[in-house]
Amino acid sequence: MTIHQSSLEAALDQQQEHGVPASVLVLLCTYNEIGNLPKVVNLLTKQMPDADILVVDDNSPDGTGRWAAENAQQNSKLSVLCRAGKLGLGSATRDGIAWALARNYQYLINFDADLSHDPRDARTLLDVCLSAPARIDVSIGSRYVSGGKTLGLSWFRRQASKIFNLYAIKMLKLPIRDCSGSFRCYRISKLRELETTKMTCNGYGFLEEILFHLHRRGARFVEVPITYEHRLSGTSKLSLSDACGALLVIHRLAFG
């Protein structure tokens, strides 16, 4: 299901009117994001003052984890999970999900900590879940629905992303248009239904893997248009080996 602009505005108006409270954790998986993380945390704190923030850092050489740990001492809404090394996005996200499940949050919002996702849209994804007439289990910040955009990437990167995304959706039979972006809001009660032992991908393929298992459990998805902007600071962590690994995960899920 896709939320169009008019429906989105109506949903947000309804949410503001009713003011439904929710226990929310925002998950930020980081590796060498010292140039971006302080800005992201500041924007999130202003936009969603009641939400908690968890930074899962893979021992960033640039001091990202150290910054987060130091600031967590003054910010009661900020927590940090420091890991031994660079163990992968999928592994970090699984650890963040486990952290949220253990603390009984109602919603988990996940997005990139490099400012390619606008922190202001995090509130939108949550509000859509809270205000939708039918139960929504995952709201997805989508580049590939009407109103969605991608800015700052080369033509080749944009086309490669679209082709990979279309291939994954077809192979996994997912009822959405953007399955490779990490900007999502999950209903925790639905995540509890997953057999986490079957989610084994440690890399970027986890983004497709979790949607595949959620879909098999009958999850309801909604896509909300967002603008994805190429990072302004730092370097991308996505490599050719990550892309190949994601393809292997898709094939395993499709034919397993």
Structural summary, described in words:
This protein is of the alpha/beta class. The protein has one domain (5-255): Spore Coat Polysaccharide Biosynthesis Protein SpsA, Chain A (Alpha-Beta Complex), CATH 3.90.550. 43% of the residues lie in helices and 16% in strands. It contains 9 helices and 9 strands. It has helices at residues 5-18, 37-47, 64-72, 89-102, 120-131, 155-172, 188-191, 206-216, 240-255; strands at residues 24-30, 52-57, 78-82, 107-110, 138-142, 149-151, 184-187, 221-225, 227-229. A 7-stranded mixed beta sheet has the order 3-2-1-4-7-5-8, with helices on both faces. Helix 3 (64-72) links the parallel strand 2 (52-57) and strand 3. Helix 1 (5-18) crosses helix 5. The longest helix has 18 residues, at 155-172. The two termini are 27 Å apart. Residues 4-20 have low confidence and may be disordered.
Classification by helices and strands: alpha/beta
Percent of residues in beta strands: 15-25%
**Poorly predicted runs of 5 or more residues:** 4-20
Helix content: 40-55%
CATH class category name: Alpha Beta
CATH architecture: Alpha-Beta Complex
User: What's the overall average pLDDT, rounded?
Assistant: 88
- Strand line-up in the sheet with most strands: 3-2-1-4-7-5-8
Shape: globular
Question: Sheet with the most strands?
Answer: 7 strands, mixed
Q: Remind me, CATH topology?
A: Spore Coat Polysaccharide Biosynthesis Protein SpsA, Chain A
